[in-house]
Structures are given as C-alpha cells and as structure tokens.
Amino acid sequence: MKDGSALKKPQAMMFDMDGTLFETETVLLPAYHNTFEILREEGLYHGDTPPDEIILSCLGMLLEDIWTRVIPGAEPRTVARANQLLLDLQVDGMKAGTSRLYPHVMETLTYLHDQGVRLFIASNGLEGYVKGVVEIHQMSSLLEGVYSAGEYQTASKVDLVRLLLDNHDITSAWMVGDRSSDVEAGVKNSQTVIGCNYADFGDTSELDGSDVIITSFDQLRRLYDEAQ
Questions:
Q1: Which is one Gene Ontology cellular component term of this protein (predicted)?
Q2: 73 — alpha (psi -120 to 50), left (phi > 0) or beta?
Q3: What does the pLDDT look like over 104-135, one tens digit per residue?
Q4: Mean pLDDT over residues 6-26, rounded?
Q5: Which of 55, 104, 118, 190 registers the highest number of CB atoms within 10 A of its CB?
C-alpha cells in the first residue's frame, strides 16, 4: 500500500457496499441458489442455476445489467420475480445473522466519524438491500447518507456520486470501492479513489486508475492520518 502523504484530507468518504464494507457472498450465494429453486418451482425458469462465478463477477453492476448477464433473454416477469426473491432472501439471511462485514469495518468507520469525516454509502444495489445491510449491522449512526441506484434510479455510479456530492455540498471526498464503477465514479467526479483489493471476486485490473489501493479496510485509517 502506498502512503497517504500525497493525499488531501477529505471532507467526506463515500463507500461502495458489496466487496468493500460487506462480505456479500455470506448472504448472496445461499439467496442466489434459493432464488433459482423458487423460479423453477413457479415455472419461470428452466435449467440449471448459472454458476456462482457469474453472479459474483457482476457485483457492483446495476441490477438490470446483472440479470442480462446471469439469465440473458429472460422475460421481464422472470427478472422482476428474481429481483424480489433475491432481495427478500438476502435480507432474511442478514436477519438470521449469517452475514458479515469485512474485518475492521466498524472500528475504522467509527474512528473516521470521530475525526469529523462525513461518511456516506454509494451503491449500485437495491434500496431495501443496501439499507438492510446498514440497519442490521448498525451503521446508521455513523452515516450521513445512504445512496443506492435502486432508490435514486441513477443510470450509473458516476451519476449517483454526482448527486450525492451536489446534495451535500461536498467538494473534497474519497471514493472507496472495489470495482471499476467505483474508480470511474471517483475519477469522473474529480475525487480521490481508494481501491479495495481484498474481496475474492473481480479482476484487480478493475482498480486501475485508483490513487491508492488498500488490501485491508483498516489501512484507510493510516491513509487518513497521513493525508495533508
């Protein structure tokens, strides 16, 4: 990891959810398999469940783009049902206590909050899912805002981040995330990008263009302390 001495201390930090704060696969994969079981039972899908690697490679994408890749050519009613099932089953998994944040997430967010950094979520996920993670893992008191593509109907994370920055009069922020969409969102909004390289999915080349890459979430604290 590079040091943070070349970075400017931000007014705010914006965090992706899946693969950055939240160990998505702890609830995603069971929900994914159950979703296809129900779709088959309801006659909305025929055939084997697509491989786990496909859904994991889609994390960070907009939901409509995910289903285009997972079940190309599916009828709209199948996609709509799959959306609802996947959301409900993941929230059920979280409520059952099977989900996890990455190590050191809460301690690091608490430290940054105590330093006066304004903290936000910026995710391409569904509103109920993103807010469910925040609620169940008790992050609400640390966050000034939770932005999801599902709630704001943005076409890209670039647009979502622009909306967040404008709504909260933020001129200096760090975009913290693990996918190319996070890098693009930070760069195209002229903000610093901290790439996260500790999830087991995704291609590390997706983080090309990041100002700094971290391999553990708690390294963010050191970067902030060293920033000017």
A1: cytosol
A2: left
A3: 999 999 999 999 999 999 999 989 999 999 99
A4: 95
A5: 55
| CA–CA gap between residue 68 and residue 55 (Å, rounded) | 11
150 and 40 share a domain? no
Average pLDDT, rounded, for the chain:
93
Asked if the structure places residue 73 within a domain, the reply is yes
Joined tokens for residue 22:
């939240």
Domain final position from 95, 123, 149: 95
CA distances from 30 to 27, 34, 85, 177, 187 (A): 6, 6, 12, 24, 34
β 212-214/173-177 pair status = unpaired
Q: What is the pTM of this model?
A: 0.90
Q: What is the Cα–Cα distance from 2 to 97, expressed in whole angstroms?
A: 35
